[in-house]
Design a protein that fits this description.
The complex is a heterodimer. Chain A has 11 helices and 12 strands. Chain A is of the alpha/beta class. The longest helix of chain A has 24 residues. Chain A is elongated. Chain A starts with a helix and ends with a strand. The N terminus of chain A is likely disordered. Chain B is mainly α. The chains are: A alpha/beta, B mainly alpha.
Chain lengths: 284, 288
Amino acid sequence: MVKIIIFSLTNRFGVVAAVIAFCGLVWAVPAVANAGSQRLVLTGSSTVAPLINEIARRFEAKFPDVRIDVQTGGSSRGINDVRKRIADIGMVSRALKPDESDLLAFTIALDGISLIVHADNPVTGLNRRQVAGIFTGDLSHWRAVGGPDARITVVNKAEGRSTLELFLDYLQLKNSAIKPHVIIGDNAQGIKTVTGNRNAIGYVSIGAAEYEVQRGAPLRLLALDGVEASVENVREGIFSLSRPLNLVTAGEPQGLTREFILFAQSPQVHDLIEAQYFVPVDAN
Amino acid sequence: MFESAALRTRRKIRDCVAQGLIYLAVMLVSLVFFWLLVDLARGGMTHLSWAFLTESPRDAGRAGGIASILVSTLLILLVALVAAIPLAWSTAILLAELVPAESSFGRSVRFSLHVLAGVPSIVFGLFGNAFFSIYLGLGFSILSGGLTLACMLLPILTSTAEAGLRAVPDSYRLSAAALGLSRTAALTHLILPAAAPALAAGLLIGIGRALAETAALLFTSGYVDRMPGSLLDSGRALALHIFDLSMNVPGGDESAYASALMLVILLLCINILAMKLAYGLQRKKIMT
């Protein structure tokens, strides 16, 4: 039907026909769509969305009459949409908070967060106290932590991002205590900001940062409290700044929702999880 | 005598400086455009191929192509235009031809359109999400995305069309009346064709804005990069795809560049096509 509209636009008579056909379509389509395949809607974290998109594609290949729609907007939106029943499953890139105990969480992978600086910066590691000092503005020069004689540019994440929440939780700080110079959204944006500024410090997903370093981006992952920031150490569980990537539902999952969650936790998708630079978890 | 010669050279120098500055400004403007184009072409050329245009994205958009994204984008654009053009252009005809320019009705319509034109696109996105997606139950779909864009396009299309209709000389209307043409006949055979280039220009601005839209579509047409099967499916627009690739997907830069290049090419093609159509229409209608 859609093709008919496009092609009939070529002549003037067709335009009129197209308008009429379009009006018809608006009325006809809902009935068709409702009668058709089963549909699953997921919304939430932009970190998890590309991964779930890939898992969904493989799931659809296995069950051809299922359609899975993945939408993003951040973890908070995932929680909201599941509560309002707009989405069947929410994607949340952190552990659930105490006031979210009405929801159920299913961990599908782990992700670590690493502090990153420009490769020209001689600093190789920081401890928790130094990090807190830098992000609250108490330490404003790199010299205070063994770096060059330059002011520190603090790159923080935007409100509502779970990377930010995890980071604040680790530092035991409130967001209002942080004095950022730059506020960013997604991981790749953070990496671009730091590679473009020799004196910047930011924090992003370890997998994304390691990938960019492999591709030759001028970037260094800082060791935290003496532990190297690497996917290996996240898997071993010795890197303290790591988080679970969860699927959340508003009640005990049933039917298609349950099928999909089990599929996303199964070893069948471990290669997809690794391809997006996350760490698979064992289902048991 | 000597003094006036000095005065003349001083004026000449001043003229030259002014002219030089103007040329410099023009060069700066075109430099920005060419820099952008060269940067896009250099980053995207190697990745752009026939396969890139005919495959669906794989591996979060790092591999594969943008076929499904292009189809979604064109569908969203089509929905937006089909919904917005009749409303906008009939409003423009009303404002320019049927209602006196100074009437309070015309003023209030124009005022509300101006306010609408100033609303940031993210607000349209939130409105579209609340009204089309949730209240009307269209969900994340090409339809709700297209209708949201239509709301955004209304003020642009209306005000450009109204300005175009007003630019048609009154002597045309008087001559048509003198020849005994009805108002409708004068409108369809004379005034609209005469204003066609202006309508096309407004349409192009609208299409440009619609194709570039990211914020309003994130909440309405959504993020799904599958080939859409109907207008009620969610479909990712090209601008949103570029945003996601460059800001959310590590290693998506090459595909982002190629997609951006494709967006620019698409815009250029639509521009050329619309201009050709408008001038053709004008010549055919007025000359015969």
